[in-house]
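Schema walk-through. Below, the input block comes first and the output block second. Nothing else is stored per chain. Lengths vary across the set, and this one has 375 residues.
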Amino acid sequence: MKPLPTTHVHDHQVASVNTDSVDRAGRWLVESGIQEEEGGVARYYRSDTAKNAPVSTEITGYAASALLFFHARSRDLVYLDRACKAGRFLIRKAWNPRLRAMPFELPTGEQTPQRAYFFDMGIVTRGLLALWRATGEAEFLAAAVQCGEAMAADFDAGGEFHPILLLPSKEPAPRSAKWSCAPGCYQLKAALAWRELAEQTGRDEFIACNRRALEYALQTHERFLTGEAERERIMDRLHAYCYFLEGLLPVAGAPDCAAALRDGIERTAQALAEIAPLFVRSDVYAQLLRVRLFASALGVVPLDRSAAAAETVAIEGFQVAGGDSSVSGGFYFGRRGAQTLPFVNPVSAAFCAQALEMWREREAGRFQPDWRTLV
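--- output ---
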């Protein structure tokens, strides 16, 4: 495996994480305005134009889970309040009860065509289940069940799952070579929602759906990273491929899943090192580090401590150090060459902050590999 290009940490060195980095990321989520008054969360903030992108249901689902992560570590009730606000936005504002669908974005005055994504539905469902576990409010569990049922009923493509449906018809959208517009192993992370629903409801059909997604992912993952000829686009696929690795964590004890995890960590680390000088995403560093820590704690593969320590340093390099509340403490999406891209991204912030906290816990001997807490 090639070393990471951005930095190197020798085996005898300790890469410590300043808890202030994690605290500042949490404060950015609640103080920056990335979460709007109704509870929805924008896809990103553009530091060059000083504007939020539109609200996304997927990002709002991720934000709910992230805010609960910050609440669990700090016990600050502002995070719990904001997480509930995000969840209620998803249930009461975004969910279309007539269609039983969660659109990617809410309708605008332009009446642009609406779409529903399988992956987004899974992330929203997991966020609602995290809220149910944190609050015990029945509304969150009931909505999560509805989302999980819709995922199973509407996206089934016979052995695989449609990535996108057109609304209101629920006809499958045309597929393309772009990874998010085709079925793929990355969908396994969304399918974690079914595994969690099976735990909460005892309904066998949910675990059966998860197993179908697992079987498909194991059959197809080896060719996923070869779906792009342009090297920079492979970085985007690495992000999605890490979703596959995350989806394997509940079944990491199975020999075929353990083998896929070991191979996937090595494959991701090498490709990340090769492509990073051209284009790199902060979330890929964070996802890889989280998977390393889980795989080590679960006894799947020994931790490459030098690589993990270098990844923590690389992650911290994406955090915004100064500026006003709209950016301070957030994490940039990535860099192209030496240029930092102007997107301060809530999912990047969530993944990076959680990875740093998990590394700190691991170094202190307190890391618990509970896949349900993975944002």
